[in-house]
Amino acid sequence: MHKATQSPENWHKSSYSSTSKECVEVAEGGPTAVRDTRNREAGHLEFAPGEWQALIRAL
Fold first, then answer.
1. 50 — phi, psi (to 5°)?
2. pLDDT tens digits along 1-54
């Protein structure tokens, strides 16, 4: 997990998240970053473009 955050304007709620408050935020561009909306201070995961595409295909 990375503690440094991406620019606030880059983060948005994932389209795969439900309407509840328990959702995932994504920052796209270069690497794709993912974080828990309710636990932002814990950091985020970053995926290189090829890794992100492989993860999405696998899901």
1. -65, -40
2. 444 445 656 888 877 666 666 788 889 888 899 998 888 889 899 999 999 899
What tokens appear for 35 in the block? 């974080």
The two three-digit tokens of residue 20, written as one number: 């509840």
Q: Which pTM does this prediction carry?
A: 0.69
- Token readout for 3 is 């503690």
DSSP string, 13-59: E-TTS-SSS--EEEE-SSSEEEEEGGGGGG-BEEE-HHHHHHHHHH-
- Asked if 40 and 52 count as a contact pair (C-beta separation under 8 A), the reply is no
